[in-house]
Amino acid sequence: MSSPEANWNRVWDRAAQSGSYSYLHSRLERSMDKVGYFISNGVLFRDGDRVLEAGCGDGLVLLSLLRLFEIQGHGLDISVSAKERAEELMEIEGNRFSFDIGDILAMPYPDDHFDKIVCLGVIEHFHDPTQSLREVYRVLKPGGQVIMMTPNKKSLGVLDRKVKQWMGTWPFGYQTEYSPAELEGLMTAQHFQIRKREGLLRRRLPHDNRTVRVIGNFDRLINLFVEDWGFFSYVFATK
Asked: What confidence tens digit (pLDDT) does each residue in 75-110 have?
């Protein structure tokens, strides 16, 4: 079995090699959509805020924030290939953030350091997410805000993941999904003060691929009848 670093390097190497117009534009659309969602939920990014994205990948969420706010952006990821991709995108965007290669389980930052932390689609890749949440809590300032997201257990995305694992085409290694209530429970156990939890549907965007569209359509239908059904589980919290 390959290391997490090697696995995520392969993921980001494939993304860079695809050169897909629709892939990059889809990710840009999704990143800007996420930032709009953060703002609509009362997360106020102020000039000079020190903002960490823990598990930032290619950094598009931070770059989307930098389009709108004069924050001090910091990205952390385990993948060297992700950093290379982020450097290319920073050149394209004409904005920069500090990118550190490191592990969310032992982040290279002092206690009480960041005003805001964004952590999207990361902790579900650990068999036990406790240490990752402890580290997020440690480096967040008192009163600071955290946005945590995982795939939602209440989504047909779970079936998609299981089918791809069975077929041997799932690229993302170990993953487990959490319902919004489960994610809230994990964070409450680490002393976060919960402001909101939500099962969020994946919004339709022009460059979505067929699989994303099909899952989204079924999730929207089931959401009419089942509470917290949606592709994402989100929790907004403070320290």
From this structure: 999 999 999 999 999 998 899 999 999 999 999 999
Using a 10 angstrom Cβ sphere, with 0-12 exposed, 13-18 middle and 19 or more buried, the burial of residue 48 is: exposed
Ordered structural domains, the chain, with CATH: 4-238 (3.40.50.150)
Report the candidate in 236, 69, 41 with the shortest Cα–Cα distance to residue 140. Answer: 236
Count helices and strands in the chain by DSSP H and E runs: 8, 7
H helices of the chain, where? 4-18, 21-40, 60-68, 80-93, 130-139, 157-167, 180-188, 210-223
Q: Left, alpha or beta for 173 (phi > 0: left; psi -120 to 50: alpha)?
A: left
- pTM recorded for the entire structure: 0.90
Which of 63, 59, 38 lies closest to 200 in space, CA to CA? 38
